[in-house]
Amino acid sequence: MSAAATVMVNLGERSYPIAIGIGTLERLGARLQELNLGTRIAVVTNPIVARLYRQAVEQSLTAAGFKPTVVQVPDGEEHKNLAWLAFLYDRLVDARLDRDSAIIALGGGVIGDLSGFTAATFQRGLPFIQVPTTLLAQVDSSVGGKTAVNHSGGKNLIGAFHQPRLVWIDVTTLKTLPRREVQAGMAEVIKHAAILGPSLFDLLESDLDRVMGLDPTLLVEVVRQNCAIKAAVVGEDERESGYRAVLNFGHTIGHAIEVLTDYRGFLHGEAVAIGMASAARLSQARGICTPAVAERVIALLRRAGLPTDIPGELIGRHLALAIAADKKVSGDKVKFVCIEDIGRVRFEYLSGEEVLGYVGGPH
User: Fold this and answer.
1) DSSP codes joined into one string, 293-329
2) Quick check: is 317 catalytic?
3) Which CATH architecture fits 5-176?
4) What's the pLDDT tens digit per position in 127-137?
5) Which residues of the chain have pLDDT under 70?
């Protein structure tokens, strides 16, 4: 395994590299010099990440001739909303960013989604750089160009596709993550392995302790495989007109759980883990996969320390309604991702009540 890797997201003139390495954060400024950006750059982050990495990023940018402005948004999914989007617009106006200026997302998925949507819409679109510092963001949300904010009616209801110019991943930033954040990130790793990466699934089953222990060389390989899986899907279906929806495995129920708990009860990866376990059980109940396949998915999630059961207090009509409010609904049916085997999935069109009928009982 190499200590560094590059994955290309092939989208014609919007193609960009995902650079994965060990201890590369201090080289960010030098790499950005190659992109012909303006000198003004806004770095969007949160206070927790800022304490850890703001100085290194600012020094790197300044040494490369950029003039960075750091803007901090409070940590947490509940701040990924229109109010904080307006706050970011105000700060960018104050910093006098122009059409050549760039926005850097330094943090996890919330920062990436919020600052990415800001970049997509401010002055009709600014260059955008992803510097993900959580496992979930490194393997999933930083790649593919989906940006959004939440609405009380649902998760990510207001958004745009805006591809980054570069994704710069330093796996050593994962060393500072709380254990719970590492576990939540593993949900997306397991998702990619379950839907399209049988060899990655085998690797996780055999080496999960080393991955969870954040072995840097193994992390580079795991992140590379995840990014390669997602890049292939995005390259085939950039705007989720069809095939890209395979990436929603576990997300229909996961998003519903997040909405019902006001984005406070579970981390995104935890909600998705419950969604994947539920989807595996639904797939088994409908005869789409064998009990052995469903159990492999559920067992790996549990080994990673992730929840696999819908809380009893959430089961009921409100859950069915939240599922029915999913963005993938057509008519009264949701495009639900079921698993056939490790590495192979298919779509089933189900109502919220039908989904609830399969997953609402005790396990």
Assistant:
1) HHHHHHHHHHHTT---S--GGG-SHHHHHHHHTSTTE
2) no
3) 3-Layer(aba) Sandwich (3.40)
4) 999 999 999 99
5) 1-2, 326-331, 361-363
pLDDT of residue 1: 47
Which residue in 79, 91, 146, 191 is the catalytic one? 146
pLDDT, one tens digit per residue, over 286-320 is 999 999 999 999 999 999 999 999 998 998 878 88
Predicted confidence at residue 75, as pLDDT, reads 92
CB distance 225 to 139 below 8 Å: no
d(CA 85, CA 149) in angstroms, rounded, equals: 8
Round to the nearest angstrom and report the end-to-end CA distance of the chain.
39
Q: Which of 80, 162, 165, 255 is catalytic?
A: 255
Fold identical between 5-176 and 179-359? no
Active-site hit among 79, 80, 251, 296: 251
Per-domain residue ranges of the chain: 5-176, 179-359
The single residue of 244, 296, 327, 328 carrying the catalytic annotation is: 244
CATH superfamily of 179-359: Dehydroquinate synthase-like - alpha domain (1.20.1090.10)
